[in-house]
Amino acid sequence: MSEYLLEMTDISKSFPGVKALDNACLRLRPGTVHALMGENGAGKSTLMKCLFGVYTRDSGTILYEGEPLNVHNTHDALVRGIAMVQQELQPIPDRSIAENIYCGKYPVKKYLGMKFVDHKKMNEDTQALLDRLNMPFDAKQKLGTLSASQMQLVEIAKAVSNNAKVVIMDEPTSSLSLKEVDTLFDIIRTLRDQGCGIIYISHKMQEILEISDEVTIMRDGQYIGTWPASELSTDDIITKMVGRELTDLYPPKISSPGEVAFEVTDYTSIDPKSFKDVSFSVREGEILGVGGLVGAQRTELMEAIFGLRSHTTGEIKLHGKTIKIASPTDAISNGIALLTEDRRGSGIFGVLSVEDNISVASLRDYLKFRAFLDEKALAELTEENIGKLSIKTPSTKTQIQNLSGGNQQKVIVSRWLAKDPDILIMDEPTRGIDVGAKYEIYCIIRDLAREGKSIIMVSSEMGELIGVADRIMVMCDGRVSGFVSGDDMNQEKIMELAVSFM
Ligand SMILES: Nc1ncnc2c1ncn2[C@@H]1O[C@H](COP(=O)(O)OP(=O)(O)OP(=O)(O)O)[C@@H](O)[C@H]1O
Ligand SMILES: [Mg+2]
User: Fold this and answer.
1) Alpha carbon separation from 389 to 275, 299, 414 (Å, rounded)
2) Residues 261, 237 within the same domain
3) Using CA positions, which residue lies closest to atom 18 of ligand 1?
4) Is residue 41 in contact with ligand 1, taking CB distance under 6 Å?
């Protein structure tokens, strides 16, 4: 019997125009957490989808418990004990948590010779599972009432509910709070101690080093190698991922902020549980970071400023003049842009091309004779952005849903850069983006500041806030708990403010 639970050898897979996997390999031991790492578009999700039966590999072998494995769909995979929490979730918001977890495998009861879904059993089993995993939800609650991070926990419960022997987690923590990450890590350790093999994909280095036993690194669809996590430092991982040494994680902070450009006073939501009395200002050429824990209402605040939430009181001034923002159209016409946190829900147009997704917010700027779209200029705009952010796509016409998760995020970043806004609000701009591309995004943000634009950057990554922002506003429980700048911009100070009203 092999020492491995799973051996994937020389797996290749092509899509039109891309060789996503080129002899990729992965060997997973039972009772271990195995991190799978690589830059955006390296092929991590594709490799896992070949295992989970979403894609069929072109060539290569998979041995599972010593036997060749051939699954043709995700149902086969689940039956064989392989479960996956996918990077792009597909929740059914109108259905209960229980129905989402049991989707496709409802328990049935027979009555008068007919089959019915056994709702009672389904709800009871789900509740038992949620309780066992320390998830504070009601099985009958509609999934749509949960936040993005809570839905992600439900997705994890769903994977665990299958008593799987291999559990694949593709960026499970991208929208989880610190406490939820702890819950998840407890679940992972429990699964591991039960002999499960866990394949864990993440761009967060700290997490990888904390939770994993072994690390496999991929680059351009190829296998680079596997190492015990204890033998790797963050720098080693980065070097192996990008194939060269990255000396700086952040561009130098050269800035000389000018006049106050944007001012928010006493912004208060009508919802008492949301933000209240928020006042801040941003200067021309300044990058204002916004820190706080998940749930601090930062996203809600930014959406309200952008006109997406109308039940708000307070005042906004642009270059000293009061402006009224009742809808995103008002915001955009005042030169304000918002890069949203939730790319699947409100960011991407999946079936449209990369070009359409980049240009959609600036089409009006590309009219010829005010009537016809200047196709040539749009094509140039797209090419320029693909180059600038190194977006990995076979062509400008590729549907964005076929890009890797991180590359979709880069497209959204490009969309708002193309708009050339004066005030750019970015909510978690580098979520799911690899280290190399993060650096490129930081450089672009810094360049925009140097051109005199004002940037508001919401981020849950402390290092990113400290490394990129000129000044940081920290929020806790819907209120501003303080501002830090200069020598005060350190982890302890920010954490202290982030929990100050709790
Ligand atoms: N359904 C598809 N159709 C066409 N191309 C695809 C499809 N799925 C993935 N690709 C391409 O395969 C390559 C690998 O993508 P994959 O999603 O596996 O990357 P990844 O390592 O998971 O990246 P990320 O960290 O950004 O999630 C990319 O170039 C991507 O554009
Ligand atoms: Mg991926």
Assistant:
1) 34, 24, 8
2) no
3) 43
4) yes
Q: Which of 350, 363, 354, 344 is nearest to 418 (CA)?
A: 363
CB atoms within 10 A of CB 196: 23
- For 218-235, what is each residue's pLDDT tens digit? 998 999 999 999 999 888
Would you say residue 127 lies in a domain? yes
pLDDT tens digit string along 426-463?
A: 998 888 788 888 888 898 899 889 999 999 999 988 88
Strand pairing class (18-28; 6-15): antiparallel
Taking CA atoms only, the protein residue closest to ligand 1 atom 31 is: 403
Residues 258 and 373 in one domain: no
Residue identified by tokens 């993060």 is 438
| 499 shares a domain with 455 | yes
The number of folded domains in the chain is 3
- Whole-number pLDDT of residue 180: 80
Neighbours of 154 (CB within 10 A): 23
What SS3 class is residue 365?
A: helix
CATH number, position 44: 3.40.50.300
Residue 410 shares a structural domain with residue 324: no
356-365 average pLDDT score: 79
Which atom of ligand 1 approaches the CA of 404 most closely? 17
Where does a domain end: 199, 218, 242?
242
Q: Is there a single domain that holds both residue 487 and residue 388?
A: no
Range of the domain at 208: 6-242
233 & 110 share domain? yes
208 CB under 6 A from ligand 1? no
Q: Is residue 445 part of a domain?
A: no
Contact, 220 vs 241, CB < 8 A? no
Residue 458 within a domain: yes
For the CA of 46, the closest atom of ligand 1 is 18
* C-beta of 392 in contact with ligand 1 (< 6 A): yes
| Averaged pLDDT of the chain | 88
Answer yes or no: is the C-beta of 438 below 6 A from any ligand 1 atom. no
Q: Examine the pLDDT at 345 and tell me if it is beyond 60.
A: no
343 — pLDDT class (breaks 50, 70, 90)? low
At 88-102, the pLDDT tens digits run 666 788 889 998 888
373 C-alpha vs ligand 2 centroid, how far in Å? 33
Do 105 and 33 lie in one domain? The reply is: yes
Q: Which atom belonging to ligand 1 lies closest to the Cα atom of 42?
A: 21
Contact 396, 380 (CB under 8 A): no
Contact in structure between 469 and 501 (CB atoms under 8 Å): no
Q: SS3 for 11?
A: strand
Q: At what angle do helices 148-160 and 178-193 cross, to 10 degrees?
A: 10
pTM over 0.70: yes
Instruction: Determine, yes or no, domain membership for 488.
Output: yes
Ligand 1 neighbour 409 (Cβ under 6 A): no
* Predicted pLDDT of residue 351: 77
Burial of 369 (0-12, 13-18, 19+ CB in 10 A): exposed
